[in-house]
Amino acid sequence: MKILITGGTGFIGTHLLHQLTKTSNDIVLLTRSAPSRHVFHTANVRCVQWDAKTFGVWTEELLDADVVINLIGKNIFEQRWNKKVKRELAESRVHATQLLVEAMRQHKHKPHVFVSVSAVGYYGDTGEEPVIETSPAGKDFLAQLVLAWETAALKAELDGVRVALPRVGIVLHNNSDIIQRLLLPFRMFVGGWIGSGKQYMSWIHADDVVRGILFAIENTQVAGAFNLVSPQPVQSKEFSRIFGKILHRPSWIPVPTILLKIFFGEVSEVITTGQKVVPQKLLRFGFQFSFPTLESALRQILS
Q: Is pTM, for the whole model, over 0.90?
């Protein structure tokens, strides 16, 4: 099976590659710059350059691709948001996805499935109200960005391609941003929750992200958006309590919302709000999570 991947050198991409290269798949990475060889685990991975903005020789790789996985997107937490950064965030997701879909359209042979990874930011701030795949999109910048991103990907359905849109939550792993940022303050006995602590965190272990993407590839009934999160979201205060419990540290010093606004600007709204997301589709299809509870996930990660 030939699999074409964009954004394959990112956090999710490297974990996915680790699993995909265990089999005899022919894998093509579309990259804007050649990554170091250590991200590969076998010789069946090839790098093809693209700029995610224009057509080029990379489109020839779609001629016989069976699966296309789209993981591309600029990190939303990398910089404070302004008009320029927001434009870059949109271009790195929406325009790049439009380009990929248009390139698929130009070939007679179409991939069996197009997996375009999305985000639970689609729902905006939903408070304590549980949300499922049919819940409406939010009105804030991030929600509208994700809506445009998904809309661009779904255009591939017009050409008979099955499109799967995993809406991923906060990804947990021992080298994920959130774990690395929390470790130091907790180890120094100054850990705590963010903002009010009441906002829900829809999280998922990195292993389950990979398994969920592979599940979508292998199961033809998976189409459209589906929530790729643990079935047990928790509030920020509870997340901190469990984190501290496993590290044998207290979790009693919260990070005030006003402080986050000073340091992060508009991005702080993403951190201090949340969604109580339910993976209704995956559960209905019988998907089994390796780490359904936060404590089981954090114990594996922090050990």
A: yes
